[in-house]
Amino acid sequence: MAIHQAMTRNGMVSGVPGGNPGITVFKGIPYAAPPVGENRWRAPQPVKDWEGVRKADRFRGFCPQEEEQSPMFLRENPKPFEEMDEDCLYLNVWTPAHTQDEKLPVVMWIHGGANVRGWGHQPSFDGEGFARRGVILVTFNWRVNIFGWLAHPELSEENPDHISGNYGVLDQVAALHWIRDNIAAFGGDPDNITVAGESAGASSTMNLCCTPLTAGLFKHAVMQSGGGFDLFSSTMIPTLKMAEKTVDLKKCLQVDSIREARKLDAGEIVRRMSRPEAAGAYLPMQVVDGVVFDGTITDICKAGNYHKIDYIIGFTKDETGMYELPEDREFFLKDVRDEYGAYADRYLELCDFLKEDEAFRAHLKVRSAEQLKTGALVFAELLEEQGHGPVYMYCFDRQLPGDDAGAYHSSELWYLFETLNRSWRPFTGKDFELSRAMADYWCNFAKTGDPNGGKLPLWESYRKEDHRMMELGLSIGMKDFGENDRVKFRKDFVMKRV
What we know:
- The protein has 498 residues and is α/β, with parallel strands linked by helices.
- The chain is built from 17 helices and 14 strands.
- Strand 3 and strand 4 form a beta hairpin.
- The longest helix has 29 residues.
- The termini are far apart.
């Protein structure tokens, strides 16, 4: 019988049976104090102890955020039952352990959402597939948008280290420490933790691989459609002082001080931030503050100061497939010039698709894939050059049935978590075979740092000399996906070799 109660450092919790009664799910365990009132825009604070047994039987509310999403996002991710709540720092544990002594590997999953939205119990996430394979899964909510990223001189002044911002990162660090301190009570091994995530969750994973605050806390990392090296080079990680100068409280929140801002209701903050007039009033991203980050991710990677662990990193073939991008050449040209600056004309010489409408539309569907592919390739090649790794790379290229969105951004999550039956799409037997293989690969990696095992096709670590990576689609196996001239140029650009 699976563990149904566990003694955390703050008190006893009781879980509920999963769909498989051999698995227990603990929902809504606090890993930090509510970030409300005076704790708004402060580093996560310790949880207060409780007496008796706390029921961990429901998911908790997620960080307040704009509810309006693209039609496709809402079709793929229906609105959750739980309401938004600024008191959002809770996590969920799926465990198959029968005793506390099993020392099972642990995966900490970080949700995506561009750092401005998302939650840890989205429909595609479920830990039962991992648990059936002897791996504990932990998901959690963390502060996003202005709640997670606001940097301001008043906040820096009240902080002992004279820093502000990066609260979303600090929440993730706090969740990782909670796992290290408590997961043994759920049958887990605190010395065998994998940090994994998709999209903003992948770049968050990269952050945790580059901050000194997490050195030695985990052994493996998985970055899906994000992470890697300099994803979008126009998105510069600012210094704290630069971020502080960008913030305009009057423009974004219609207040004159942090004291006034802390008096606002969380829903009112979201409403005010959603006004068109508030655009550009702050930066929803990490800042270089000398404590959480000693430099940009680019600088940290080049200096070899990332964590020397095992990595899986990859992307989907049609990353942009779920977005409605403007089919406007002028918009595209402006974006390229903002991105490449003085090198824009050299990049545009490689954009032969600009001559025909159909080719241009086709490129928009895969443009993000080229950028994410570049970030993954440069990181993998940098590790190889510096003698670290291994790095296991993949491309998810299953064209999902039901429409023409293709292998769109986040589409692999239904497969990884074996939640295909939660989607509206008419999946086939081949899809379920791919789903099982992906879950097997990821769980093997969580156990040993190597995705291989059993009868799975051999997944070789990446080598620059042959460019092969794992194809995850209707075919599963090593494949050379090649590099077009734009990817080659971008690799040189982000490495400052042009």
